[in-house]
Write a structure and sequence with these properties.
This protein has 13 helices and no strands. With 309 residues, it is mainly alpha-helical.
Length: 309
Amino acid sequence: MSAYERTQSFYEAYRKHYVHRFLRRKGREPQGFPSLISGLEVGDFASIWRARQRADAMGVPYERYVIELMLDADASGTRQLPRPNQLCSDSKLPMLLERLEQKRAEGIFDPFAKDFDPRFYAANFVGDQQQLDALAWIEEQMAKAGSVRKPVVLNRFMCIEQLISEAEAMRRFGQELVDEAKAHRGGYTSRTPVVLDAPGPSDPACFGMRTEGHAICSQCPVAQRCTEFRAEVEERVQERFGVLNVPKERERVAVRDRKRRQRERERSGAAMTDQELHRVLKEAGDPKVIQRREKDKQRRDRKKPKSQE
């Protein structure tokens, strides 16, 4: 899938579990919750995108990533469920890593538990970086398995799932272990994986972000398609919003509107906005604010030199 499609898939998992838990907590469905990622506000869209990138980097299924954050919110007794900007919070990263490692150890999930892209079958191997990463992950699982389980694990990846060829398995694990894996439960299954007519390497993660003069971009085999794709995206953005840098344009408009409101206040003689006035009056009568100010004053008085007293 493209990065956008993966982000949409992540958002679907988040929305599903958010709505389910909100109904359980509040007894009603949350309002104003768009069904597609295209309906999100700019800030929420960026947060969902970053959270999806983090899930990809950790190698964890999107639903599992979201579920762990929801479970943490339940365990912490928070009044609100995690919003998009909290899905990629650095403060939650240690907790996520600990929980996910525990789930991996328990065998709760793994990347090959369901159907996956046919390019990952050994029959379609072309040396693509993602295929190499999958083989590296298999090697990690073999390293974690005990001596008794190694043949079982290799049998699964080589004979059942058929993700690694016999020649590659021999190169990585040796002839003896491959023979033991083939002897386990009769060796290869009768299932025939999908064989692509013309398997080719997948596009790099930076596809669509070509930079003129960049050393990597100048040697990229998909440079022409990348340039065409970026031009098409920029044309659509220009057609829809009238500018290419939409966040910068929105910031410019917001600054312009703020200055306009400020000039209107100055002409009317208002010293502050209604929101600022409401906040000041609220804080002035708030016991907690008054208590905090008193403590701050006492702390400053203690730090003063005796000569000033």
